Structure formats: structure tokens, C-alpha cells
Amino acid sequence: MTQMxxxxxxxxxxxxxxxxxxxxxxxxxxxVARLGGFAIWGGIVVWGLVFASTLAWSADGGNADxxxxxxxxxxxxxxxxxxxxxxxxxxxxQSVEVRQFLDLxxxxxxxxxxxxxxxxxxxxxxTISANDAGDIIVEGDPRPAVLMIHGGGWAIxxxxxxxxxxxxxxxxxxxxxxxxxxxxxxxQFPRQVDDVxxxxxxxxxxxxxWKVDLSRVGMFGYSAGGHLSALIGVLGNEExxxxxxxxxxxxxxxxxxxxxxxxxxxxxxxxxDFRIVPDDNAGLSYFLGGTPREVPNNYxxxxxxxxxxxxxxxxxxxxxxxxxxxxxENSEKFxxxxxxxxxxxxxxxxxxxxxxxxxxxxxxxxxIKDFFIKQLLQQ
Length: 379
Hints:
CATH topology: Rossmann fold
CATH superfamily: Alpha/Beta hydrolase fold, catalytic domain
Largest sheet: 9 strands, mixed
Distance between the termini: 17 Å
Radius of gyration: 20 Å
Shape: globular
Strand order of the largest sheet: 1-11-10-9-8-6-7-3-2
Order of helices and strands: HHEHEEEEEHEHHEHHHEHHEHEHH
CATH class: Alpha Beta
Structural class: alpha/beta
Strand content: 15-25%
């Protein structure tokens, strides 16, 4: 039975400008201005993510201090104090070989948009081979999987920016899937969301060959990828009419019934609520297809906070305290909504860090590993 959580506890202070406490109006306008900056800052963001993904897992040799985060007490996603299981798993992972299969195709989208990579850990109990027909065959027991989704303001970016993350997670024992998706403005919402669903269907179709445990599928994304991960996570148990707000699939499409349940979501720096955008603001039109006045259902359908309900998967949110691109209020309000619904959620605030730098901060790296080990490996 789901237990109702306590209120959010933050281990870090949130610094406001001197003067009166911020009003809903001031926060609202701040969030709108920064969300609209995705189109301008996208190039800077993605190259920051490239650099970040390269350094993130090697910056501290795997010995980062554990961060204290805001979490539900009764239904927390944290590891127990003094728990040595994660350290044991990470230590054993250092010598694990990872087999990569790059640029596989999940759709006929132009260019690289329909491509994904697979990262398999190799062990005495798990061997991987590919036959002449190109089929990938894994021998061994089923293992949990993590789907990785890159950032870039929904307009740029590529899966290779997360490749180092993928290898490190695979060394821990996960089958890791790293995907590209169709990009705005050529392809607007909800096509990116449907692309994520298509990759999840690849896991279903090949679960026997790849030895994937479909009851233990997690998702990680940062920035725009964090948004897509969170949105898929909260929409999984919604009514079909709500799911269709973020899909081009027909209501009676058989693919709906084939999608696997999502067991855990880790989202970093995610935009979570587009309903705050003023009616005639066009800052996100390149992604959402118009202003809120023109396409109100797109702004509703794309907002993870709007679709929170009991039964959503455990969530780990990570946000830089000084994120100027996606303000931390996004994660704070999303976490509060999840807690009110009785969903297990942790919000890790990385002190004094902005949007790009948070991704490769040692605390972020450690929290990603701890979360998926607890939610998917220890279940």
C-alpha cells in the first residue's frame, strides 16, 4: 500500500534576491523567460553536455560523497544509511566488459533521428553474440534495462553525448539503450514522445533475445531528455485520452497495450510545467507548435506536473541550485506534486551549480548510480 509522504526536506538553501518574498507572478515570469531561452542556448547546452558526459564518470574516480536530498520518508528512493551494497556493486563493476552495438535503427526517420545504441555488460553468466542476420543474442538471466535520452532543447543533440554514462551503467549490470529522436522545429511535439515509446517497444520485441526483464525498465534523461523521461513516466498509468495529448498514435493503436511499465525515472534539470507560459508567448513555438492560445492542449500534454497521479514510478530529480536555463522551481513543484500523490520521489539539489555543470557534478553521477541500483538491481 502506498504511504502518504511527508513534506519536502531540503538540505541546501535556496537563495532569493533581497527584498520581499517572491510572488507567484515573479516566479511565473522568471520560468517563462528561461524556458524560452532553450532555442537560443541550445547549442551551448549540447556542447556542455558533450563535455560533461565525457568527464562525469571519471572526475572523482568513483568515490564521490553521497548527496543528501529531499525525499519522502515513508517511501524514499534513497539507499539505507550505511548500506554497503552499492559500494560492492560499483567495485565489482570496474572490471566488467561492455559490448556496444551502435547505430541500430528503430524507425525510418531521416538521418540519425531513428537510431539507437545498445550497451551490454559481459560476464561469465552473460555472453553476447550477433548472427549473420544481424540479430543480437544474449545468453543468461534477464537483466534490468535503462533507457537514456539526451538533451539539447528538443532541437539539437545526439545520443553519443551520453555514451560514457551508458558504459558506466552497463558495467553495473544494466542493459542500456541510448536513443536519438526527431528534433524540432522540423518535428514538433509530440513526435519526440512517440519516438521514446518506439524505443521502449524495441525492448519488448527483443526482450527474449536481449534478456531484458521488462518489469525492471528505468529511464534517465537530462534537460530536454529529463523532460521526456518524466513525461513518459507519469503518463504510463493515465487514461488513453490523457496519453493522447502527448501522442500521434490513434486511440485504438495496438502499440499502447504493448508498452512496458516504467519502474524508475531519473530526470536531471527537467522542464516540468508549460502551463505557466502566457497565452501569446511564442518562445516555445518551435517545439510545441504555437503559442498556448493557439495549441493549449500541447502545453497541457507536454507538462509532467499536470499528469502526476498515484501509481507513478519512483522518481529521482536532480537540479542545479543556480540553474539559469531551467529554474529549480520546475523540479521543486514537480516533486511536491509527486509527494502529494504518494509517489516515492527524491529531489537532489546540487549546490552552486548551473544547468550544464550539474550533469557532470560528482554528486549527480553518484545519485544516478545509487538510484538505479536500488530501484532496479536490488528489487
